[in-house]
Structures are given as structure tokens and as C-alpha cells.
Amino acid sequence: MTENSIAYCGLLCGLCHPEGDCNCKFENHCSKQSSARGCFQYNCCSSKNLNGCWECTESPCGIDMHTLDNVKIRAFIRCIKEDGLEKFISYIENNMGQGLVYHRHGFTGDYDLETEDAVLELLRHGKIK
């Protein structure tokens, strides 16, 4: 897994694609398939020449409702911002090795928890206190 595996919003698109890269970064897949306004994170990050929301000084900006409503996305961005991208990737890879699943049922997996702190605890320690 690399930075190219992680979407601008912090989701792990590379886990679902055989090439291991995020289609959003290379084909603007989200913008093509979502509403007429496209993907907020793609549009914002590409206009600011950022690799993801975690690089933005205004993050979390709270402008996009998808990010505001998704605890996992907010926690992933926060983790990358606080711990760095390499550490975030190591958390995900270590947790996968311990049996944690990103997508268990459809798009829902082990990281889909009630609070950001619970997701961060799971990311950083592979368990919830």
C-alpha cells in the first residue's frame, strides 16, 4: 500500500482495486460517478495541489457533508494528519495481518465505529479499549 492507494478523502481505495491505486487520483472516478458537482475532496485537493485532506491547513473544514457524516473518513484524515501517512499505512497493514477487515459486509468493515476516538484506537492499537 502506498500514498496512491489512499483517496483524497482518506478512504483506502487501493484495497479494492487490483492495481492497488486509487482510481480517484488517476481517473477522477468519484467525480464521474457521483452527483453533478463531483467529489468535493477531489476538486478541493486537486485545486490546491494536495495529495489529500490531511495536507490541508484548513482540514477538517466541514464543508463536505460526506466527510462530516462519515466517522471513519474523519478519523483516517485525523490519523494521517497527526501520525503521518507512513504510520497510517503501517497501522492498516499491521491490523490486516491481525485479521481486521476494511470491508466486511459491502462497504462496512471493522473501522466503521461510532466515534473518531474508537476508530483511532483501533487503527493505532488493533483493538478498542
TrEMBL record:
Name by which UniProt lists this protein: DUF3795 domain-containing protein
Source organism of the structure: Catenibacillus scindens
Organism ancestry: Bacteria, Bacillati, Bacillota, Clostridia, Lachnospirales
